[in-house]
Amino acid sequence: MAGTLKKTKKLNKNKALTFFRKNLKETKEHNMIVDMERNDLSKICRSGSVKILKKKTVEEYKDLYHYVSLIGGQLKNKVTSLEIIKAMMPGGSVIGCPKISTLNLLNKQEKQSRNIYTGSFGYLKFNGDMRFNIIIRSILNFKGKSEISVASGVVIDSNAAHEFNENYIKAKSLMDLYK
């Protein structure tokens, strides 16, 4: 999931898809995330099995549209749960590319802890089934204070005002919970 567009009365899923396909910045951001996820999956999946299962579609939400692709693959034999988690975390959509270099840069630049934001929450069953998510668009309630966290992907073509507005759109549904 990479690419966000504010929902309006004049916009529908088809128009949102046209916007995403014509918008170079959103396309670059989306392609970067898809390539990163394909790379991460290739560490734990059989050679040649990693495929894009759903390519550049639009999902509709209350306040926005997202540009979405689905990537899958067949796990190699004897891959452990820990190997899967190590290959897939941290999530590419919250770190950027190249993942390890960007993570190191963020750790040096960010002066404040992200708390749970961009971490992961999930479960692992004894039979090996697992479900994890990346904690984005989150509310952390702690010691009588609420902290809302959102972010947007940044590429060379990013515009600060656009990124601010994108973050506002993402945060709006969380802020609306306090009305």
Key terms:
179 residues, alpha+beta, two-stranded antiparallel sheet, 6 helices
Can you offer a commentary on this structure?
By secondary structure, the protein is an alpha+beta fold. The chain has helices spanning 13-22, 24-42, 81-88, 92-95, 99-109, 160-176; strands at residues 4-6, 51-60, 64-72, 120-124, 130-134, 138-142, 145-149. The strands form three sheets. It has a three-stranded antiparallel β-sheet with strand order 1-3-2, sandwiched between helices. A hairpin with a 5-residue loop joins strand 4 and strand 5 (130-134). The model has no long low-confidence stretch (mean pLDDT 88).
Rounded to the nearest angstrom, the radius of gyration is: 17 Å
Terminal-residue CA separation:
28 Å
Q: Give the strand order of the largest sheet, numbering strands 1, 2, ... along the chain.
A: 1-3-2
Based on CA inertia axes, which overall geometry fits? Answer: globular
Write the layout of secondary structure elements.
Layout: E1 4-6, H1 13-22, H2 24-42, E2 51-60, E3 64-72, H3 81-88, H4 92-95, H5 99-109, E4 120-124, E5 130-134, E6 138-142, E7 145-149, H6 160-176
Antiparallel strand pairs: 1-3, 2-3, 4-5, 6-7
Quick structural summary:
Helices cover 39% and strands 23% of the residues.
